[in-house]
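Before relying on records like the one below, remember that each one covers exactly one chain. Contacts with other chains, cofactors or solvent are not represented anywhere in the record.
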Amino acid sequence: MAPLTDTRDASVEMMSSRSSVVSCSDAELIARIQRCEQAMRVVMMEQLQVIAEADRRGLHAERGARSMQVWLRELLNIDQRDAKTRVTVARNVEDRASLYGETMPAELPQTAAALSQGAISVEHARVIVAGIRRLPEYARCHRVGEVEATLVGYARQVPPRELEKIAERIRYLLDQDGAYQDEADQHEARELHYGTGRDGMTVIKARLDRETGAKFVALIEPLAAPCPQTAGGEKDPRSAGQRNADGFAALLDLATDSDGMPRAGGQRPHLTITIDFEDLKRGLGFPDEQGMPGTLNTGRAITAENARRIACDSEVLPMVLDGAGLPLDLGRARRTAPAHLRAALLQRDGVCSFPGCDRPPGTPDAHHVVSWIDGGPTELANMTMLCGSHHRTVHSQRWEIQMREGRPVFIPPSTVDIDRRPRPGGKALPAQHREHLRDLIPSQRDPAGETRRSRPEAAVS
């Protein structure tokens, strides 16, 4: 019954501690959190000492376990990685016995001292052990104390993840040949696989060498950044995974529009959708007017509604097919927004004219107010620029757009605003900010002291 009594006593102490926590000031709470962490680290060091002794005695073999890590994992009900970390650290921070039974100091005495003080965690110690093990032989023989002191010093200041980067830099400094070989091995191990899931979504799995990975991160991070909080306090509703996916989509848009992409059969890389023209016109999303789906170049289906959105700023190639789907006649491609018209739209609307747009990165779309499929003309008075995110919003939520005095006005659906109050469109916020700041620039004066009149600005694209 003793364990029950101990548990009850511990429970009483916990309740009393909890009541005392409520009465703590903020500063006292912070101090207690730090003290608890330090105490847990000190206790962990005590456990490492016990693990090292159990390892020396070979307790795992006596109990039928194939290794110390396996025995500890089962004993403590912890993950294999955690068990391996504790055993590895214990073997390096505890005194050792020589072949003659003599006691030898720990291999990493400075790490052991920091652990005993509660200044660093076991994970810090794991990084230090791994970093020293990867040093070249001459450094392990002659500079291990210096390297350990450096790493322990940093471990007291930075989290384990950052400590790993420092350990790697030290290794790159002391073993440049080995580091170069590692990079060569990573390049050989590079791989990227993609396929289509049963639900039609594309699945991508990749392992990139550090140089290619750095390029990818440099490109995806700005494209996947969260949208700034709106004036109404609304935050970006997308998850980190969704933002990364949107950033990747924007990256593909930029690559598709680049003249540097290799051409196949004289054509730049492009997305192809095959859909009946009447279905494309009917694809308005109402239950009684659903159009037949189209087909992507991957062979997967796509709804007429999304095909309609994509067609806003795409080349439409009329093609007459027979009953078996074979081409009989080919029309002429019509580009909905030629280069000169896009330049004029960008000058008027910026990257996106949707109210309050914060200019998400990516290639904007030229959207027809009255759809080209429904006979809307491809001209400045019937078009407006939308970023990819707001282009999808306009189509999926069914915003209405009207042109008033040459400017787009957005009318939200009743699900967004029950009164459907019109919202004037304009340039994305960064462009508006630049225009406002331009007023702060002092006007130039001629030698006579008179203010010069502003000259008309020319749009450069």
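The radius of gyration is 33 Å.
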